[in-house]
Design a protein that fits this description.
The complex is a heterotetramer, with two copies of chain A and two copies of chain B. Chain A is α/β, with parallel strands linked by helices. Chain A contains eleven helices and twelve strands. The model of chain A has no long low-confidence stretch (mean pLDDT 96). Chain B is built from 22 helices and 22 strands. In chain B, strand 5, helix 2 and strand 6 form a beta-alpha-beta unit. Classes of the chains: A alpha/beta, B alpha/beta. The complex binds thiamine diphosphate (2 copies), iron/sulfur cluster (2 copies) and magnesium ion (2 copies).
Chain lengths: 339, 615, 615, 339
């Protein structure tokens, strides 16, 4: 990402293409947050590239006015990786769905994370294959009914945060479609993070999996059933801001401040920068109703990026070689002349 | 140098080194061929090794061979049969006896001919007495013992000693063919710079082998010399096909003023391309060892979108995996070179053997109407040229190009006259112009390529993808008529490349009886066969095809000038069937072989002779 | 029922329902076709919808259509042009006007013709006055208003009301074509069993539409009746191609006494096969929704090794991904059915449109010499037959079989005479015999299949894999001659299947002027075209191919009996080129179309007529 | 796995094929352990199937006399999954390498684990691509020199245990090639576990990556640099058996019993059955020299298997349907008769 900061408005990043998601689809909200985030980040528009796979969510590149690449199913990660490594100066967004990233694209997903390529990866998790009209996905809840699981699925789903950390993930954040400002904030944080940054956006597919996140995402209960984590701040949540998380052995526990002897001092402070992923693991795995669902930037640990190391390695080698151009190589080693 | 009087002059010689996978035969062969090339011979080599890393010691399955052919005249192939066979153990003898010429010399390491090894090789008893009855000069050299002797002052660690036995054999052949030890001594000094003991040991053994040969009557009395070939003036080096391919790509990037990006996943026999490119950080090459072949090509497509000369290299099963993404490159009309080093198939097949059976897949192996350019290289060194050409076509015509080589030319070597970079053409990709309104699917009126707009360029923002796009504007389009237009444009764009490639040439006369058609890595053998038959006065001619899709525009016209056409391939007839489609009017005879091996010149001559007799 | 006097008898009628993706046009069309089929008409349908789930409301891109053709005579295709167009909004009118026959009736929901919708559809002003000048009967029905009226006692929730507008349109067409509402009322009762209000609302609206049509002079006075078709005796149902495919596979498993395993990854338009199989747990079908297409086929290969009838279903891009694994099935010679429902390509292409452009890939899209059987179905209902046949060939000949259908027949429906399972042949896989020494690559002398040994059977332990195997014994083998033998055996095994498939038949005379060759899902249109031309006395005949590799053995002989051959395909000429390879001696004309749409009968007749005139 | 227990000797599972690994390759030792384990388990030989991908290690099926399937590169997991689901009665072993399972086969690997198919997965981790002659793999140490990384790799490797748990892994064990008995034990445990069981076998590739595990695997130091975990036992190690692991906040700490006031009671007891993966994560991530490398069964948590759930679901549906055979289906729904 360039340092040059330009003053943009969200509308500057809007394309002239009609948005073709269903009315009410959660993807619309993330698009809006993204336009905000892009404007805020201020990376010159021509340096922004949005790469996607295939799925409803992967239509995204058509709706922003930057460079865009609508790839093939599951390969957004690989295409984006190649683009960023070839051209580290670009700000590359990868848009992908739970099917695109975690079914067919699962391998590229874990490898881009492991390699820590500086990509901003937005995973639209609606727990369903939307574009193909409603098959269960690797994130669908166990027992979910869909057209390919008419009697309920028999597979336990991936938890994206857990998988990301299992693959050495250094940045993981979560947001909900309706929380437009939070989404814009975490998207911006992801873009500013140098390395592979995964944002899990919980989105609603009104047509094929309506209300799958509703238990905790519905406005009425959201404050009590989710917790927005912020680095350096106490892990407090609830409409009354009186609930919090404490550590108990190897697990987290929800307590009410002022009850059972818990005071604000007992509440954990969020350290997104802790290299040991153990607590980030626990946080990202929290599930309603036992726990509030964690939102915000859960993990953000600096590390070298693949493309920087590559650029560095090339520079190091070039500084110490006599082979400066192809003619040099051609004439290196065992050659002889016929006169 | 030795006494010149005892030298027998020969035009060409074939030597085959063979032993266990761990016996260092590949190194030995490479040393001999480099020495000969440096001396001025023309050389062609053929490494042939098992799929296992160290196949079971002493068994026929574990034998690793290296054949080389050097001459004072043009040498275009590694030879069918050898003048000298070096067999480091009974299994090597068993596996390779069939390749020895009548009257040929066989050097065996007789120390290894014990019961255990004989049994492992599948011999009931020592076969040498029996073989002696045949038309061979068999030299039973106690190579192990003599190596131990030579090394006794350096080390007595048996493992280290055994590892140098190949130098003994090499020394013997150096004597036999009147070569100096200089090149190899240099090599040993460089290679073992940090282990002077090891270097010293190897050198001693090399010399010991040389000296020993001198003491053997049958060798000393038949010492052979092959004078330097008359070669074009210039600077030469030995090169194998994979290195030449890698270098051709780097050269193309330099000529196009682009950076080179290679996204690949290792697979035999293509891995060496990735290895060479990974070593070329000095020239700024970016290699990305991907998690699989799909990621390999997809990273390359990303890099191509990003403005690099993008390449992915693989072999058969890997090309299968890349099919879908090649379609994406066809649809997005981005430049991309896909190098496929063919090996024996189907499925995992014969991973270390050669074949030409991925042509169908290169031409047809994708969903939808999905035309890609297909080019094939013919020899180790011209992999450079065709890799360069593939990149040129990809970049200038905005299309994926599949470059086919094969295991035989990929691993084989030959001397190569090094081109000056200034002698190569500039490559001029059709960049979109800054400041003009950019329409991603507007086209050059002649070539029909679209224009390349690189992310980072202000004002050229656009979106590509795998869905059908509206002509000119590039928005997603389901308009029926547009699909027809675009399908035909993609087809025609590739077809038009026939105007930007050389016309097909023929080796032989303008017209005649039999036209031999071949393609890719069979060039050397087919050429030898046709050349020798022509020299014997046969009415035979050769048309070797390198540009397969599109074919050169004059091919049909060429075919019409010969009475008969025979198409030779190391498959069941993939090019010939393609020709039946493209030029249905001709009758085609075919000659095919499916043994994981190159043709032999012999079998070709035999077959062509039969055809000619069937007048 | 209505007054029979006002009925005009017709042999066939084509109706096209069109509206926004959310307007329920697919359901409406299905209801009408089921009602007609039940009534005894022959019916053919063609759903045509956009790639987006809910493409932008009101735009031409978002129009979803459903065309159906019913008749008192044989109906083999959904018709080129419609007698009645129902257009629920201006965009639907705009997109479909071109498909209305001269003199046809257009019913528009005039309530939607406001400025906003007209603009979205790309109309500058209301086009109806202009269109009235054309040869159409335009009925401007206030469908929204009347629906609201009908629903007022049930609900005033506008969303719910709007959702039933399609029933109004359906009711109108039921009146127009003298149909009872019974089938749809039954359907509504079942579908909304748990929501009686919704059921009631829909029924009221349906009746209101019916009643309204009666009041419209232009409709009431032209009421049409299409009497039942003369069909063979038997029990019938409507079926689409994907369901028929799924059922054919289940039937084959039952006939082979095997369990059915399907490993697939969803992809349009193949997903419905997986959906149907997943619903068939009642019949013990095991479906495995894999993480991708590669896993889909590889789980199927595992299941096949394990002794199941194994299947994987996909569409174009997915078939690309399966290439490598198909090679593994070829090498291990395991039974496997790969169903590929073709769609518009290349790459992601036109996912919801139809095409025949995966034939090359099915035939050639693998590394190495890698022969697989290729079979294609022609109509929605005969997908059952060819799925069954594919499974039979796979199981009895121990080979992967690629079954090609396409988006058109996969989604299209037609009435189908249900076969009794007892009328289908038993399938007898060549199981290895317990107790005998098992050699994995020993073969049946006629068919050349190897024998199937199922894990769990004592004494038959063996190992398969993708490396080349020794003939008979099946150990890994790099022996050159063996590779040749095995390559040819694999080829010959597939070739021999020509002895186990029906001979090719011709519709028409034994010999003649023009032979129309077609394959797969174009059957209905091509048949109509040829049939009508024959009825007009033209010397035209039809050869529709379902078994593609191997071809029926008598094809060449058939071709030789006609003066000219024209091959028609929805691609750029893939079958014709294959025929040029297999039967080079004939000259082939070709007719191709690349619009993501089926042929029209009209264009075929036109084209064939032109050829016939070119005598 | 069948209950029927047969008396076998290891040699009964040996095939007549010559073993084609390099002399000194670590794979030989695992083969020996496997023969022992197979004999011990006593599953009838004809019910045992060994499925592999491609790689040196994947040659395995040829060397045992059971049913075997040598697949294509990376697809062992998918082939084994299909086989087991089709035929749950079989005892299916999956043999795979670090390249086969974690490079090209990464996606199938994480999905078979997530689905919890009852497979015994043996991951031969030599941190190199052996068969293709020495390219770095996704488990090669950062900076590793190989023929495709002549200047050192720039990628941080996967840690297999971590990835397995990130994919909901319920069984993870680790062993070292030279520890033949331990290997036999964990292989047997994996086979007895009902679910996807991953055994990471640290093997030495003498040719292309010699001694990569030697720092802790060499006999002289092994006791001090590794810890063999056993369920229900204290986490003690060291030649003197006087070192142990204790918990400190969210991390583990190595202590010496009798020093700094630590007694045996402070030492953690290994609970492989704890569903919360947090501590198993820490254990499997322990790296020398900071920690001893954990061996033995690190995690073993029971859960439903995919194939059992499928069988159950089919049985449930079949118990409640009128469609018993194809004829019933053909005649179901909207049919009519033409007479
Ligand atoms: C190779 C390939 N396989 C399958 C498909 C079909 N397909 C398209 S999108 C999709 C899944 C979409 O799910 P997800 O990624 O969650 O995106 P969503 O539509 O839910 O946003 C599938 C299976 C395809 N286009 N290409
Ligand atoms: C599709 C495909 N891609 C690549 C290869 C080449 N290949 C064979 S084995 C292998 C890697 C082997 O590494 P690993 O799985 O770690 O096994 P090891 O040899 O180290 O035991 C590769 C890249 C192949 N056979 N097929
Ligand atoms: S189908 Fe679902 S995910 Fe797709 S656009 Fe509609 S609501 Fe969104
Ligand atoms: S190359 Fe390495 S992994 Fe392969 S057999 Fe040899 S030692 Fe073992
Ligand atoms: Mg989704
Ligand atoms: Mg390995």
């Amino acid at each position: 990402m360039s340092d040059l900061k330009i003053q943009y408005k969200p509308a500057d990043f809007k394309s002239d293409q009609e948005v073709r998601w269903c009315p009410g689809c959660g993807d619309h909200a993330i698009l809006n947050s993204m336009l905000k985030a892009m404007a805020n980040i201020g990376c010159p528009k021509e340096k922004v590239v949005v790469v996607s796979g295939i799925g409803c969510s992967s239509r995204f590149p058509y709706y922003v006015s930057t460079y865009g690449f609508h790839g093939i199913h599951g390969r957004a990660a690989a295409i984006a990786s190649g683009l960023k490594v070839a051209n580290p100066d670009l700000c590359v967004w990868q848009i992908t769905g739970d099917g695109d990233a975690m079914a067919i694209g699962g391998n590229h997903f874990i490898h881009e994370i492991r390699r820590n390529i500086n990509l901003n990866i937005v995973l639209f998790n609606n727990e369903i294959y939307g574009l193909t009209k409603g098959q269960y996905s690797p994130t669908s809840k166990k027992g979910a009914i869909s057209n390919t699981s008419p009697f309920g699925t028999i597979e336990r789903p991936f938890r994206p945060g857990e998988l990301v950390m299992g693959a050495q993930g250094r940045f993981f954040a979560r947001t909900i479609d309706m929380m437009v400002q939070l989404s814009a904030d975490v998207l911006e944080a992801a873009a500013r993070f140098e390395g592979a940054a995964v944002v899990e956006a919980l989105v609603n597919c009104v047509i094929f999996n309506d209300a799958t996140h509703e238990m905790f995402s519905a406005k009425e209960n959201r404050d009590d059933r989710t917790i927005v984590l912020r680095h350096g701040e106490k892990m407090i949540f609830g409409k009354e801001k009186n609930k919090g998380l404490v550590l108990k052995g190897f697990t987290l526990k929800v307590v009410t401040i002022g009850e059972d002897g818990y005071t604000i001092d007992d509440i954990l402070t969020h350290d997104a920068g802790e290299p040991n992923p153990a607590i980030h693991h626990l946080l990202s795995n929290m599930q309603y109703p036992e726990y509030p669902v964690a939102l915000g930037v859960i993990r953000e640990v600096k590390d070298d990026t693949y493309e920087n190391l590559l650029v560095q390695q090339i520079a190091d080698v070039q500084a110490n070689t006599k082979i400066k151009k192809m003619d040099d190589l051609l004439k290196s080693g065992g050659i002889w002349e016929v006169k | 140098m030795a006494d010149q009087k005892t030298l027998i002059e020969k035009e060409e010689v074939v030597i085959r080194f063979s032993g266990d996978s761990g016996d260092g035969m590949q190194l030995t062969g490479t040393q001999f061929s480099n020495t000969s090339a440096l001396y001025g011979n023309d050389v062609s080599t053929f490494p042939d090794y098992p799929a296992e890393i160290r196949a079971p010691q002493g068994t026929v399955g574990g034998v690793s061979g290296f054949q080389l052919h050097f001459g004072s005249k043009l040498v275009t192939n590694p030879g069918d049969y050898c003048d000298v066979l070096v067999a480091m153990n009974p299994a090597a003898l068993k596996a390779n006896l069939r390749w020895v010429k009548p009257g040929g010399t066989i050097i065996v390491n007789i120390d290894t001919f014990n019961d255990k090894n004989l049994e492992k090789a599948g011999y009931k008893e020592n076969p040498i007495p029996e073989y002696r009855k045949g038309d061979y000069n068999i030299v039973e050299a106690p190579i192990t013992t003599l190596t131990q002797g030579a090394m006794q002052d350096i080390t007595t660690d048996n493992k280290s000693v055994l590892r140098t036995r190949n130098m003994f054999a090499l020394g013997m052949t150096y004597f036999m063919f009147n070569r100096t030890l200089d090149y190899t001594i240099d090599f040993l000094n460089r290679k073992f710079g940090k282990k002077p003991d090891v270097a010293q040991g190897n050198k001693l053994v090399l010399q010991a082998g040389f000296n020993y040969a001198e003491t053997i009557e049958v060798l000393a009395s038949r010492r052979v010399n092959v004078v330097p070939a008359k070669q074009e003036k210039g600077v030469y080096r030995n090169i194998n096909g994979n290195t030449a391919t890698a270098w051709g790509l780097i050269a193309a990037a330099e000529k196009a003023k682009l950076e080179l990006f290679c996204g690949s996943y290792p697979i035999t026999p293509a891995t060496d391309i990735l290895i060479e490119l990974a070593a070329r950080k000095d020239l700024g090459v970016k290699t990305f060892q991907a998690e699989d072949e799909i990621a390999g090509i997809c990273t390359a497509i990303g890099a191509s979108f990003g403005g690099d000369l993008a390449v992915t290299s693989t072999s058969g099963p890997g090309l299968s995996l890349k099919s879908e993404a090649i379609g994406l490159a066809v649809m997005t009309e981005l430049p991309l070179v896909v190098v496929n080093v063919q090996r024996g198939g189907p499925s995992t097949g014969l991973p270390t053997k050669t074949e030409q059976s991925d042509l169908y897949q290169a031409l047809y192996g994708r969903n939808g109407e999905c035309p890609a350019v297909v080019v094939a290289a013919s020899t180790p060194s011209d992999c450079f040229k065709y890799a360069f050409e593939s990149a040129r076509i990809a970049l200038e015509h905005m299309t994926p190009v599949i470059l086919l080589t094969d295991g035989f030319i990929a691993n084989g070597t030959e001397p190569w006259r090094i081109p000056a970079m200034s002698s190569l053409p500039e490559i001029k990709p059709p960049f979109a112009k800054k400041g003009e309104k950019y329409q991603p699917y507007a086209r050059d009126t002649e070539k029909l390529n679209r224009f390349w707009a690189i992310p980072g360029t202000p004002g050229l923002e656009h979106r590509l993808g795998g869905l059908e796009k509206m002509n000119v504007t590039g928005t997603v389009s389901y308009v029926p008529e547009n699909h027809d237009v675009m399908t035909n444009l993609r087809e025609q764009k590739v077809k038009n490349i026939e105007n930007y490639i050389p016309k097909q040439t023929v080796f032989g006369d303008d017209k005649g009886d039999l036209l031999v058609v071949s393609w890719g890595g069979t060039y050397g053998h087919v050429f030898s066969a046709v050349d020798s038959m022509r020299k014997n006065g046969h009415d035979i001619h050769m048309c070797h095809i390198n540009y397969i899709n599109p074919l050169p525009s004059n091919i049909g016209e060429i075919f019409s000038r010969y009475k008969r056409i025979v198409v030779c391939e190391i498959n069941l007839g993939q090019l010939v069937n393609y020709l039946r489609v493209k030029h249905q009017d001709f009758k085609y005879l075919q000659y095919n072989k499916m043994m994981g091996l190159p043709f032999t010149v012999n079998e070709l001559v035999e077959h062509f002779t039969k055809i000619l007799q069937e007048k």
